[in-house]
Design brief:
Helix content: over 70%
Number of strands: 3
Number of helices: 16
Radius of gyration: 29 Å
Shape: elongated
CATH class of the largest domain: Mainly Alpha
Number of domains: 3
Strand order of the largest sheet: 2-1-3
Distance between the termini: 120 Å
CATH architecture of the largest domain: Up-down Bundle
CATH topology of the largest domain: Receptor-associated Protein
Structural class: mainly alpha
CATH superfamily of the largest domain: Type II secretion system (T2SS), domain F
C-alpha cells in the first residue's frame, strides 16, 4: 500500500542574519510549515501552494443575504463568545447554534444562523465567513483559516477577539472625546440660524415702527439677516448640490486618496489621524504575524485596516520590498510616513525574532498617544467653542439693545 504523501509548498523566507532563503518542503498545511520554519529561525515572507477548489455554496448562503454593517463591539463580542465555546469543547455547529439564540444584534444573529447552516452542510468556518466579506474582514477569515489548519482555533479566535476589542476601545475613545465638541458646534450653528432667520427679522419690524437711526452693529446684522433670508432657497439648494457632488467624489479612489493625504497633512489634527491609522495597522499586523500568517499576506491585510489609502499604498510598497528580500524595517525607513520610533522598534523586533510582540508595543504606544492627544485637543476646543458662542450672543444682544437704550434716552 503506497505511502500517503503530504502536499509540498515552495516558500521564501529570511534567516536571522537577513539572508533570503528560497526552498520547498512538505507539510500538512502552509501554517504548519510556517510554524516549523519559525522554529528553525526563519521568518516566512510568502508561501506558494496549489489552489484548492472552492467549497460548494450551500442554499441560503450569505451571497443572497442583505449585507448590513455590524458594530465592531458586537463583532468582538461574537468572536469572544465563539472562542469560549470552542475552547470548552463545543463543536463549531453547536457553538454557532447557541450563539444564534444569544447574539443580541438581529442582523448578526441572521448571519450567524447562515454560518451554522453552511458549516452543517460541510463548509469550513473560514469558507463560510468568506461569503460574508462585507461583515467579516479579511483578517477574520485569514486567522480562522490558520486556526482550522493548525488545530488551534480557540486560541486564534481568542487572540482575534482581543484585537477587535482593542480596535473597538480605540474607536469608542475617539468618538466619546469628540461628541461634546460636535454637540457644542451643532448648538452654535442652530442658535446662529435661529438668530439670523427668526430673531433679527422680528426686531427689524419693531425698529421700523420708530423713526430712529440704528447703530452700525444693528444695521450690519439686519443686512446679514436680509441677505440670508432672501437667498435661503438658493443657498440651501446650492449646499445640497455641493454635498451630493462631494459625497460622490469622496467615494472614488482618487477622491479618497486625495482626502486621506490632506487629512494626515493637516496641522495638529493630521498627526493625530496618522497615529490612529498606524495604531490600527500595527495592532492588526501583530495579531496576524503572531498567529502564523506569512509576512506578505499579513502586510497586505493589515495595510487595508489602516483606514487611510496613503498609508495602505506605503504598506504595499513595503510588502513588495519584503517579497524582494528587504526587511520590514528597511521598507519603513524608506518611507517618511512611518515615524523613526516605529522604524526603530520594528528593526529591534526583527533582529530579536519577536516582531509580533514589538508591533503590539508600537500599537499600544500610539493608542496611548492618541488618548492623550484627543484629551488635550478636546480641552482646548471646548472653551474656544463656548467663547465663540458667547461672543456671537453678546454681539446680537448689543445689536438689539443698543437701539432700545437709544429710544429710552430719547423719551427721557
Amino acid at each position: 500500500m503506497g505511502e500517503l504523501l503530504m502536499p509540498r509548498f515552495t516558500y521564501i523566507a529570511r534567516d536571522r542574519y537577513g539572508q533570503r532563503v528560497e526552498s520547498s518542503a512538505e507539510a500538512q498545511s502552509p501554517y504548519m510549515l510556517v510554524s516549523s520554519l519559525r522554529e528553525r529561525g526563519l521568518t516566512v515572507i510568502s508561501i506558494g501552494r496549489q489552489r484548492v477548489a472552492k467549497a460548494p455554496r450551500s442554499k441560503g448562503s450569505g451571497s443572497k443575504m442583505k449585507k448590513k454593517a455590524i458594530d465592531l463591539g458586537d463583532l468582538a463580542g461574537f468572536c469572544r463568545q465563539l472562542a469560549t465555546l470552542v475552547e470548552a469543547g463545543v463543536p463549531i455547529v453547536g457553538s454557532l447554534e447557541i450563539l444564534t439564540e444569544q447574539v443580541p444584534n438581529k442582523n448578526l444573529r441572521e448571519i450567524v444562523a447562515d454560518l451554522k447552516e453552511s458549516v452543517k452542510a460541510g463548509d469550513a468556518l473560514s469558507a463560510a465567513l468568506a461569503r460574508h466579506s462585507k461583515i467579516f474582514p479579511a483578517l477574520f477569515t485569514s486567522m480562522t483559516r490558520v486556526g482550522e489548519e493548525t488545530g488551534e482555533l480557540s486560541t486564534i479566535l481568542s487572540r482575534m477577539a482581543s484585537h477587535l476589542e482593542k480596535q473597538y476601545r480605540l474607536r469608542k475613545q475617539i468618538k466619546s472625546a469628540t461628541t461634546y465638541p460636535l454637540f457644542i458646534t451643532g448648538f452654535f450653528l442652530t442658535s446662529l440660524a435661529g438668530i439670523v432667520f427668526f430673531l433679527i427679522p422680528k426686531f427689524k419690524e419693531i425698529f421700523s415702527d420708530f423713526d430712529l437711526e440704528l447703530p452700525f452693529l444693528t444695521r450690519a446684522l439686519i443686512a446679514v439677516s436680509n441677505f440670508a433670508t432672501s437667498n435661503a432657497p438658493y443657498g440651501i439648494g446650492g449646499l445640497a448640490f455641493l454635498a451630493i457632488l462631494w459625497t460622490r467624489w469622496s467615494r472614488t479612489i482618487n477622491g479618497r486618496y486625495l482626502l486621506d493625504r490632506k487629512k494626515i497633512g493637516m496641522p495638529i489634527v493630521g498627526e493625530l489621524i496618522k497615529k490612529v491609522s498606524l495604531a490600527r495597522f500595527s495592532q492588526t499586523l501583530s495579531t496576524l504575524m503572531g498567529s502564523g500568517v506569512p509576512v506578505a499576506e499579513a502586510l497586505e491585510i493589515a495595510g487595508r485596516t489602516s483606514g487611510n489609502l496613503v498609508i495602505e499604498e506605503m504598506v504595499e510598497g513595503v510588502r513588495a520590498g519584503v517579497v524582494g528580500g528587504s526587511s520590514i524595517a528597511e521598507g519603513f525607513r524608506k518611507r517618511p510616513i512611518f515615524p523613526k520610533l516605529m522604524v526603530g522598534m520594528v528593526a529591534a523586533g526583527e533582529e530579536s525574532g519577536a516582531l509580533a510582540q514589538m508591533l503590539e508595543k508600537v500599537a499600544d504606544t500610539y493608542a496611548e498617544e492618541v488618548d492623550s492627544a484627543v484629551s488635550g485637543l478636546t480641552s482646548v476646543i471646548e472653551p474656544v467653542l463656548i467663547v465663540g458662542l458667547g461672543a456671537v450672543i453678546l454681539v446680537v444682544v448689543l445689536a438689539i439693545y443698543l437701539p432700545i437704550f437709544k429710544m429710552a434716552t430719547g423719551i427721557h
